[in-house]
Write a structure and sequence with these properties.
By secondary structure, the protein is an all-alpha fold. Helix content is 65%, strand content 0%.
Length: 89
């Protein structure tokens, strides 16, 4: 199933709260394109591993060397997104 607007908004909140490259204070909209790209790639049937893999790939593409985050932190964020999927189902 494709991500709906409610789930997309929740994913956006998770990503902005995570603030993995520390830009939210200076540019709160900086994550906008990444959030849209991530929502386009995600499906509520994704596993936590798939979500983590997609997060890492998309953020590396967008922010290159600025994105230096541990796999554990990415997995934690993926788990939060999976929880949103569970709420929606």
């Amino acid at each position: 199933m494709i991500i709906n607007a409610y789930v997309g908004d929740k994913i956006g909140e998770i990503i902005r709260d995570w603030d993995c490259i520390g830009i939210r204070i200076f540019s709160p909209d900086e994550y906008y394109d990444v959030i849209l790209h991530l929502c386009d790639e995600l499906s509520i049937s994704d596993t936590p591993t798939n979500v983590a893999r997609k997060i890492k790939r998309i953020f590396k593409q967008e922010f290159e060397d600025s994105f230096d985050v541990s796999d554990e932190e990415i997995k934690d964020t993926a788990s939060k997104i999976i929880e949103v999927f569970k709420e929606f189902q």
